[in-house]
Amino acid sequence: MSVSAKELTQQALALSVIEREKLASDLLSSTHSKELTEVDQAWLAVAEERYVDLASGKDKGIPESEFFAKVKEKLGWR
User: Are residues 60 and 77 in the same domain?
Assistant: First the structure.
């Protein structure tokens, strides 16, 4: 890694969690040539909204054990 890349990494790590997530997303997106479809963009918007609600405490979510119990039930796993 060049000196400038190391400096960029240090600067990036000093960002807030939300800023780092946005930066990471932008960097990953820049490595893919495939454009997001309207459906992809809609799902991304839903995911971002849900994340913001969880991060802000607006949505409390559910306990991990309850989540996996629901998944197993939906899949018919016992």
Answer: yes
Separation of alpha carbons 63 and 11, rounded Å: 35
Predicted confidence at residue 34, as pLDDT, reads 75
Q: Give per-residue pLDDT as tens, 32-68.
A: 767 888 999 999 999 999 999 999 999 999 999 999 9
Expressed as residue numbers, the domain containing 9 is 1-34
Closest CA to 44 of 71, 18, 25: 25
How far, in Å, CA of 36 to CA of 54, rounded? 25
DSSP string for the chain: --HHHHHHHHHHHTS-HHHHHHHHHHHHHHT--PPPPHHHHHHHHHHHHHHHHHHHTSS----HHHHHHHHHHHHT--
**pTM for this predicted structure:** 0.45
The one-letter amino acid code at 47 reads: A
